[in-house]
Specification:
The chain is of the alpha+beta class. The chain has 6 helices and 5 strands; from the N terminus they run αβαβαβαββαα. The longest helix is centred in the last third of the chain and has 42 residues. One of its GO terms (molecular function) is large ribosomal subunit rRNA binding.
Length: about 170
């Protein structure tokens, strides 16, 4: 059953809204995957807060216009789906790359991150991007390192004096 013009407008508006809020997007071809495989992929995507959409290519091209993912228009050919990372830039890449390891028929066509088009082979680097909590943890450790080093440096003269006195004590007791 063909879609009415209002239905098409609603789909374009919905995908456009998701694309405006997303951090990254992946276009992947799902030709040859069974319905159970796609259902499994959708469940994994839902748990990671990744929006996975199968949309007609002409509608998808219109939906990504005037967004950071306009660069993906050339990859929207054939049976593809769009995976948008909503919270973390690497979430969609992690879901897709993990799923592609066990399903060879899933082929990544293109990746967009921050308005830049990346090749499909860059999916492992994007998947390795830290999560939000990991990034905060790294930032806190970097911020804490100078203070920790300062405390160690300031405590070292006292510790050196204590070790020297202990060595003199030990040498006289022998």
């Amino acid at each position: 059953m063909p879609l009415s013009i209002d239905d098409k407008r609603a789909i374009v508006a919905n995908v456009n809204e998701v694309a405006r809020r997303a951090h990254s997007a992946i276009v992947a071809e799902f030709r040859g995957l069974s319905v159970t495989d796609v259902t499994e992929l959708r469940q994994k995507a839902r748990t990671e807060n990744v929006s996975l959409r199968v949309v007609k290519n002409t509608l998808a091209r219109r939906a990504v216009l005037k967004t950071d993912f306009e660069c993906l228009q050339g990859a929207l050919v054939g049976p593809v789906f769009l995976a948008f990372s909503m919270n973390e830039p690497g979430a969609a890449a992690r879901v897709i790359s993990d799923f592609a390891k066990s399903h060879e028929k899933l082929v990544v066509k293109s990746i967009a991150l921050g308005g830049q088009l990346l090749s499909a082979s860059d999916i492992t680097q994007v998947a390795k991007l830290p999560t939000y909590s990991e990034a905060i943890s790294m930032l806190m450790s970097v911020m804490q390192a100078p203070i920790t080093q300062l405390v160690r440096t300031m405590a070292e003269p006292h510790a050196k004096l204590a070790r020297t006195i202990a060595a003199v004590r030990d040498s006289k007791s022998i």
